[in-house]
Amino acid sequence: MNTRAQQLEKLQAFVLSSQDYGESDRIVSLFSLEQGHLRGFARGARNSRKRFGPSLETFARIELVLNQKEGLSALHSADVITLYSGIRGSLCAIAQALYACELVGNLTPEGQPIPRLFRLMATYFEYLDTGQGGEADRRMYEINLLNILGYRPNLEGCSRCGADFDVQGALLQQRGELACRFCAATGRNIPLTALKRLGLCLATSRFGQAVLDEETLPLGGLLLDESIASLTPRKLRSLEFLHQSCGLPA
């Protein structure tokens, strides 16, 4: 029996990023349903329309065949499930999709399947592909991602003493920590309404029904920004593009 054929695996994945290597090859970062985050080497990808075509475009959803190895897996071929043409027709939607991919690439370990996160990405991209999706939906994606990965800030009680937050809410500390007024003397106030609405975002995976309104969106976003910044060693490259493309404050 052909041992090479035995080693080939078929996976479904999102392309998180793709970069040219040498004259014709590509190095690709992927998030797969079956194996989680992995990196692959696609030899001759820029010249082989038959084996790869447009399948290695960032945030495409693909089915691929690879020989999985530690470090860089060898990509054999890939077929497009969807390129999300609706997203690619809007600069703001492209920016949101790139940001969603960079978050997953930065916050997930390699080789660990996380089916819930894969489904969250699929649902978010499908919604963006319809020509919808705004800042509240982006925040809904973030809080659900942090929750799935175990990084979500405690929205119910003080991170130091464990006491439930009162009607005044919480004080935001460094690294996205939320503390009560007995444990912290200073910090940006995050009202209880904003914390509750962020919690409600965890109760549904249906985008377009995000419950953050004009009053709670900026404060909930501030909390999420602090939490995400504490988890990433450097500022995400897609963040500036997101703010520029979607007209968000810097």
Summarize the structure.
The chain has 250 residues and is of the alpha+beta class.
Fold and architecture overview:
With 250 residues, this protein is of the alpha+beta class. The chain folds into 2 domains: 3-83, Beta Barrel (OB fold (Dihydrolipoamide Acetyltransferase, E2P)), CATH 2.40.50.140; 86-246, Up-down Bundle (de novo design (two linked rop proteins)). It has 8 helices and 8 strands; from the N terminus they run αβββββααααβββααα. The chain has a 5-stranded mixed barrel with strand order 1-2-3-5-4. Strands 7-6-8 form a 3-stranded antiparallel sheet. Strand 2 (25-32) and strand 3 form a beta hairpin. Helix 3 (91-107) runs antiparallel to helix 4 and helix 5 (135-149) packs across helix 7 (217-229).
Mean pLDDT across residues:
92
Order of helices and strands: HEEEEEHHHHEEEHHH
CATH superfamily of the largest domain: Recombination protein O, C-terminal domain
Give the terminus-to-terminus CA distance: 58 Å
Structure characteristics:
single chain, 250 residues, alpha+beta, OB fold (Dihydrolipoamide Acetyltransferase, E2P), de novo design (two linked rop proteins), 2 domains, 5-stranded mixed beta barrel, 3-stranded antiparallel beta sheet, elongated, disordered N terminus
